Amino acid sequence: MIIDHTQLTADTLKAIIEAFINRGDHTENTTDINLPDTIKYLKYKLDQQELYLTFDAATESVNILDCESVENLSGLIETE
Q1: Taking the model in full, what pTM does it have?
Q2: Average pLDDT for consecutive 10-residue bins of the chain (80 residues)?
């Protein structure tokens, strides 16, 4: 399920992104960027719909996926 990140509070979204970064799950090239800037960068990507927040009911976890990954999982996003 895709979560509309704009419906989350700023603190909640920041906590989700920070947890995602700390898990080491991101593939974005952000290794040379400090944590606050990485959070801003990933939020920007979410705002641009290049990344999506998703919820997996089976694992009860939130993840951040790129468009291709979301399409492969569910076909929910139409690309032009």
Answers
A1: 0.77
A2: 94 94 68 82 95 91 88 58
